[in-house]
Amino acid sequence: xxxxxxxxxxxxxxxxxxxxxxxxxxxxxxxxxxxxxxxxxxxxxxxxxxxxxxxxxxxxxxxxxxxxxxxxxxxxxxxxxxxxxxxxxxxxxxxxxxxxxxxxxxxxxxxxxxxxxxxxxxxxxxxxxxxxxxxxxxxxxxxxxxxxxxxxxxxxxxxxxxxxxxxxxxxxxxxxxxxxxxxxxxxxxxxxxxxxxxxxxxxxxxxxxxxxxxxxxxxxxxxxxxxxxxxxxxxxxxxxxxxxxxxxxxxxxxxxxxxxxxxxxxxxxxxxxxxxxxxxxxxxxxxxxxxxxxxxxxxxxxxxxxxxxxxxxxxxxxxxxxxxxxxxxxxxxxxxxxxxxxxxxxxxxxxxxxxxxxxxxxxxxxxxxxxxxxxxxxxxxxxxxxxxxxxxxxxxxxxxxxxxxxxxxxxxxxxxxxxxxxxxxxxxxx
Length: 430
Description:
Layout: H1 24-56, H2 60-81, H3 90-109, H4 115-130, H5 134-140, H6 150-167, H7 169-179, H8 181-197, H9 219-226, H10 239-243, H11 246-259, H12 264-267, H13 269-275, H14 280-296, H15 298-305, H16 310-324, H17 337-362, H18 367-374, H19 376-396, H20 400-420
């Protein structure tokens, strides 16, 4: 078991202590960069899919089966690898090694000729390794560096994913048109090396490892700054105690229902608009609007997260999405673009909530192990949503039923959060 900060020996002054700003913001920048690359792979696949399908004589479902496998394997990778974030040098080593695997697999994807090779590289290897890479860092390292400003820090770090949705598709499409789909995978490999693997060498698990404190504030100043919002010491619950508690499993169920739609509705944004009678270019604009609002609204949710109780935030996001998801059924014409903006806002809130709920209720010290146990369940639900919506459309010719189902799942997340918050936070036995 790691020693507590109070038992650690004094840490020598380094260049990190001489920075004109708190070193935690370096962690935020690394998190942004990693999320940009990791989710950029998912968003780029939508552009690369058709050229690969046509060149290699695959079906579109075979291509997107790679994304489905990537999501599922990411859950297994999180379960196996995020626990290493709790050891002093574990986060840096794990993120660096998994990043090398991801970078190599992306480069090799440019040479695939059989669909099983694509599934192995993109679905299997990059998927599993992502659980110990961007996901590990954003969920189990960045939150350790902040308490008062944790919401805004996590929001800024995770904004990399929505920025990728807004920025990457156009240059990837241009590159594919000029040089072919193979060049796009090489570009993604180079992005992974420069924006994900190399920055990982700067990772430090938590501020106490450098003799610092969360937010760059002394414990006394932090308690005084948080006095109006939160009293008492931050929880510190080990993974075994957390998993044995009723609160943990109620939170897992809450996040499962909340994130059922987090991948499916955004991934199908363009097809949803085509279903409403928009042409491909107009449908693509809907997807762009989603990316813009998902990106820019992170700071809003992060600011709210630093002001209110986590249960209130999660319930508020759930209610917003309950109302939002079915709206496209009745919206038409130019007003339908409001839907993309609202989904971007709501899904952005989901991303912030699922990253903050665990440190809020169980503390920072055992965050890696707790995230590792909890993460597979909502990821499986998210992956299921990716399959559920197209299957319903194939059988009914409409997305109405699946959008109502996404709304119902969001509402159930509100119900279970209100039940969960009535349970006490468990205490680790001395």
